[in-house]
Amino acid sequence: MTKAVPAAALDPRTRALLEGPIAPTLLRLGAPNVLVMFAQASVGLIETYFIGQLGTDALAGVALVFPVVMLMQMMSSGAMGGGIASAIARALGARRRDDANALVLHAVLIALGFGLAFMAAVLLGGPALYGQMGGRGASLQAALLYSNCVFAGAVLVWLFNALAAVIRGTGNMAVPAIVTSVGAVLLVPLSPALIFGWGPLPALGIAGGAVALLLYYALGTVALLAYLRSARSLLRPTWRGVPLRWPLFRAILGVGIAGAISTVATNVAIAIATGLVGRFGAAAIAGYGTASRLEYLLVPLVFGLGGPLVAMVGTCIGAGQRERALRATWVGAGLAVLITETIGVAAALWPHAWLRLFDHDPAMLEAGALYLRTVGPLYGFFGLGLVLYFASQGAGRLGWPVAGNLARLTIAGVGGWLALRWQGGLAGVFLAQGVALVVYGLVNAFTTAGGAWFGRVGWPATPGRLMQRLTP
User: Is residue 3 part of a domain?
Assistant: First the structure.
């Protein structure tokens, strides 16, 4: 049996998650995490900006690949990464330090397995997938070139995000923030240098952006490993002689696989919408793909709060402090709605301020502006659903968030198809996307408020009933 850590040995970071004031603690931990997620999102935006200089076909090609890249990013960082951070936080909250150390090796092995699976699936199935999404001619060729380069190094992406999740699970948000931010700064000159060719570097075109991205993840993985092996790390992982145990794999996979289903649903919804938009031509794909990048940018921003929330909720659940876990969740939800709704309204009012960063094609601008004006004002519901998904990761209860995301997928896909069938055009497709976001946010909010973490959901959950569920 794993030996518990005495109370006196409780790390200050763990103590802050269990005892510190909720809002200031979330904001303090969230600040570097917002930075790390913003820097990570900026990596894709930097690359897209320079690839946009190669023309509309190149931009459309990247737009076709982007949902698949984000699927990998969100599964490795948000889904499986959330499972890793949650498992480590719950172990530390329960003062099972040996288990927390052993979880690092289990997390790395999971990341290697998923990375190889992604590489094989996309390299073999990419041509058919991008063709179904509307890729034709030059835009399809650009998509395949970019995709093959990125997914040849899929293992690097998975390892980087797994190690960052390990560190975040201890309540340390600063180290992943520093590593990611430094990498993003280095990517600013590296990406155009490889795309256009500077000095002795050859002009690789769209493939140069992919190569630069993989170099970023490779260097970041080395830096995170170096930190975990240093004396500053709370964890003391060992790589040899550690027995592999199914309960530790299950602690990660139980949350991670449920999160992966939710992530797949999110990205399939985007991919289906891309395919529906593809019926209106390459410029429409480029416009939708560029506009929907703003929605993807919301994911890392909300994860800025979601990462600390996973750690705080997981640590509190592990320590038996259920009421504090729920209070922290609603504080985080309020902050997430404020951030995402502000961005959405601004995008709806001034869509060209975003779109012109990437291209000036009139048809592209028209399609992108239509999307932002239709869906942008509803981004607050997306932020609400997403932050409650992260909190549910910390609690180890993802059934209802998965159901909410599947409902989103159904409404976005079926609604978009019906819009085209009934001659609703692009506006109808985008309206279905907006309604899907509303449903996603409300399902997660009602079920969390109804006590889904602590038993069967009841509507409405009276304070007395909810307090009964909070009692261990």
Answer: no
Residue 1 resides in a domain: no
- How far apart are alpha carbons 105 and 237 in whole angstroms? 7
Q: Give residue for tokens 């999404």.
A: 133
Alpha helices (runs of H) in 278-361, residue ranges in sequence order: 282-318, 322-349, 351-355
Angle CA 300–77–284, to nearest 5: 55
As a whole number of angstroms, the distance between CA 251 and CA 243 comes to 15
Q: Encoding tokens for residue 286?
A: 């480029």
Domain count, the chain: 1
Q: DSSP character for 423?
A: T
Q: Helix, strand or coil for residue 143?
A: helix
In a domain, 101, yes or no: yes
Residue 5 lies in a domain: no
Nearest CA among 277, 274, 297 for reference residue 41: 297
Measured N-to-C along each axis, helices 379-395 and 399-421 cross at an angle, to the nearest 10 degrees, of 150
- Give kind and range of the element (H or E) at residue 374: helix 362-375
Residues 6+ apart with CB under 8 A from 174: 32
Amino acid at 282: A
Residue linked to tokens 């975003």: 354
Amino acid letter for position 166: V
| Pair 45, 127: CB distance under 8 Å | no
Range of the domain at 197: 18-470
The C-alpha angle 160, 163, 164, rounded to 5 degrees, equals: 85
How is residue 136 annotated by DSSP?
A: -
**Residue 366 is encoded by which pair of tokens?**
């028209």
The pair phi, psi for residue 243, each rounded to 5°, is -70, 135
Under a CB-based contact definition with an 8 Å cutoff, are residues 100 and 235 in contact? yes
Contact 285, 134 (CB under 8 A): yes
pLDDT tens digits in sequence order for the chain, 472 residues long: 344 444 445 677 777 777 878 888 888 877 776 776 666 666 666 677 787 778 778 878 887 888 788 788 878 987 898 889 888 988 887 788 888 899 999 999 999 999 999 999 999 998 888 888 777 788 888 889 999 999 999 999 999 999 999 998 888 888 888 888 888 888 888 888 888 888 788 888 888 888 888 999 999 999 999 999 998 888 888 777 778 899 999 989 988 888 788 777 777 777 787 778 877 777 787 788 778 778 777 877 787 788 788 888 888 888 888 888 888 899 999 999 999 999 999 999 998 888 887 777 788 888 888 989 999 999 999 999 999 988 988 887 888 888 888 898 899 888 888 888 887 788 888 899 899 999 999 999 999 888 888 766 554 444 445 445 444 4
